[in-house]
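My current task is to audit a protein record that another person submitted. I need someone to confirm that the token line plausibly describes how this chain folds. Take the sequence as given and treat only the tokens as open to question. This is what I was given:
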Amino acid sequence: MAKEKERVDFLWRYQPFKSTPDGVLMSYIKGNLLLPSRELILQALRPYWLPLAYLEKGDIDPVILGRLFRNAVYVLEKQALYLRERGGLEYPPIHIGGMPISSIPSSRELPADIEESDRSRLNGASLRCSHHDLSKLTADDLFELEDFDDSGFA
């Protein structure tokens, strides 16, 4: 069997008590009428971990890897906006983690603590925002995804 056709065997059984936060979460996922439980779980996992999995795997075109990172951040930001709306939270936030947003330094570079091997795999793939008028910023502007199809993530 070709290596691309090999399956990953992943089984997970989890039975939290219904009254716990995990129990409430699993009940919500199981009770969703729009999508199967497996798809809901994968939609949450893909943007959170898929780019890192490909980065670690290593045999991926740097342009595609950069796009995976941008797509994942876009989906996570989209979910954050949805949660802000549903939770009645202010946007844009004035504080992040108790720290005034104005005191958080902005960086247009990859984080300083990213390993050099990871930097070289990205090979210049841009993970930066180039929009300069922050008052008109949208999620698409943030991640420069004019033609992005997020159907594989959301």
